[in-house]
Amino acid sequence: MRQNNINSTAENCTNFSTFAKLFIKNIESMLTVNNLSVQFGKRILFDEVNTVFTDGNIYGVIGANGAGKSTFLKILSGQMDPTSGHVFLEPGKRMSVLNQNHNMFDEHTVLETVMMGNKVLYAVKKEMDELYLDYNDSNADRIGELQVQFEEMNGWNADSDAAAMLSNLGINEDNHYTLMGDLEGKLKVRVLLAQALFGNPDVLIMDEPTNDLDFETIAWLENFLANYENTVIVVSHDRHFLDAVCTHISDIDFGKINHYSGNYTFWYESSQLAAKQRAQQNKKAEEKKQELEEFIRRFSANVAKSKQATSRKKMISKLNISEIKPSSRRYPAIIFEQEREAGDQILNVVGLSASVDGETLFTGVDLNMAKGDKIVLFSKDSRATTAFYEILNGNQQADSGTFDWGITTNQAYLPVENHEFFENDLSLVDWLRQYAKTEEERDEVFIRGFLGKMIFSGEEALKTSRVLSGGEKVRCMLSRMMMERANVLMLDEPTNHLDLESITAFNNSLKNYKGSVIFTTHDHEFSQTVGNRIIELTPKGAIDRYMTFDDYLDDEKVQELRKKMYS
User: Fold this and answer.
1) Which of the four pLDDT bands, split at 50, 70 and 90, describes residue 53?
2) Which terminus of the chain, N or C, has fewer Cβ atoms within 10 Å?
3) pLDDT at res. 67
4) How far apart are CA 372 and CA 525, in angstroms?
5) Of all helices (H) and strands (E), which one includes residue 363?
């Protein structure tokens, strides 16, 4: 239901003055949403939303699970019609959308798929190529027209531009003329991302663009977008990514969408501060104002030093008190406690190796885990990290090597795959009761209270485990881990399927946890703020460094060593 001309919008205006204001508003903005409502049955997802996305800003769309983030992006891009209302794209501007259908281009080559991101350019190129096959006097004029049009769109550089984009995203030249249908899934994701970015679109819409990307590729994308001159609207659960690129956060709450200047961390911290102030009924208004002003000054100083502020022209233009409001979000109470404190000996690994179908995953790993270590375990091959956890938990046999847990340790493990835990029809109360250690913990009142803290209140606690969503299953698995009161945690991709609220609460919990942790995650913020030691598993051994994750990625000697270990 895209309305691309002023006349159709004017018909809905009650008088000329209203139309004139709307006209001016549309001219100033790249993308305008007018009176948009979305309703599914009796459920109202959006109610009379009016908002604008202006040129040169990057908007991070956030909202609780089910708030309608993906639906909103589909409406903006014309893939779905709203119940009522209109979306207006500035005339002559091009919108590009990150395609979610990974099999849509299976009959096309990788390079061709990227160029199809600019539909007009690709159509001109295709027609021109077809006419060249039967060149004659009758089509010479048309070929000339197409050549002029193609040149105006910088079409003669399209192949090289598409190839450069692919290379930046880790698709080597050997694959550029491969059919999409012959690529593995993770490479397809990168090609479709290149397609969305290709040709400098005026409006770029992306839903979870960092999924299945490694840290190096995400860093490249962050730098690319930090210097991007046009409008970007993105949904992501990656807080580091949102902080690195966003000038605004677009919060979906109560069926409305509100834009806030700043990145995700500013939005989160300011909304928490506003909620705390709302609870302080007796605090004087002037004291609250001073606290807010000091918060803005502190955050603005941090932003001024950030990569975003120094590398892109579109710096955050304003941070004002009126924008700081409490959020209605619910954050789960993720709290890991230890039944007892572990001694000095946590885990000793000697010469551990593993392979799959004759392919080496890691070899000769030596590890002496110290008390209080919070280890970021990662590899370019996710099978390596998962195999490591499975060996430590006795679920898989190593090719060689040994490991010993300290006698004072008790471990809790969150596997990357959890479906086997939910192949039953138990209610959540009975499901969690399986892992209770004491009579008190088996009591229904205790379990319901526990589940309530994890946002399973009332009737939700009686849902059967088999029908849970991915995020609900992870919250159940975290509840199970918390009841174990372990002093060593092992976490394989713990943020998978979780919403931003759960990820943030989880992250904060691990920062405060007094025990030892080994974890693997694609969440950069998790790795940077929790880990104090980095261990990378490679086919030629392990790299082990006591440093932060960012320092590890920035260390030139480490990067040289990594190249050798994977070569």
Assistant:
1) very high
2) C
3) 85
4) 19
5) strand 359-370
Greater pLDDT, 52 or 20: 52
Element holding 59 (H helix, E strand) = strand 58-62
pLDDT digits (tens, 9 = 90+) for 327-383: 777 889 999 999 999 999 999 999 999 999 999 999 999 999 999 999 999 999 999
How far does Cα 222 stand from its chain's mean position? 12
Alpha carbon distances (Å) from 565 to 92, 167, 361, 367, 543: 50, 21, 12, 17, 9
**pLDDT given at position 301:** 61
- Kindly tell me if the per-residue pLDDT of 15 is higher than 60: no
Question: CA torsion sign, 118 to 123 to 124 to 128?
Answer: positive
Range 105-144 burial, b when 16+ CB lie within 10 A, else e: beebbbbbbbbbbbeebbebbebbeebeeeeeeeeeeebe
> pLDDT digit string (tens) for 80-121?
999 999 999 999 899 999 998 999 999 999 999 999 999 999
Report how far residue 78's alpha carbon sits from residue 31's, in angstroms, rounded to the nearest whole number: 12
Cα gap 178→69, rounded to integer Å = 34
Q: In what order do the strands lie in the sheet with 516-520?
A: 411-414, 488-492, 516-520, 374-378, 533-538, 541-545
Query: In sequence order, what are the residues at sequence separation of 6 or more whose Cβ sits closer than 8 angstroms to the Cβ of residue 535?
Result: 367, 375, 376, 377, 378, 542, 543, 544, 545
- The HSE-up count of residue 519 (CA atoms within 13 Å, CB side) is 31
The structure tokens listed for 144 are 């000339």
Max intra-chain CA distance, the chain: 91
CA 488 to chain centroid, in Å, comes to: 27
Sign of CA dihedral 267, 475, 189, 107: negative
The tens digit of pLDDT for each residue in 272-284 reads 887 777 777 667 7
pLDDT of residue 1: 43
3-state secondary structure of 62: strand
- The secondary structure of residue 459, as a DSSP letter, is G
- Rounded-to-integer distance, Cα 255 and Cα 38, Å: 9
CA distance 198 to 309: 24
Query: Which residue is it, tokens 């290149």?
Result: 194
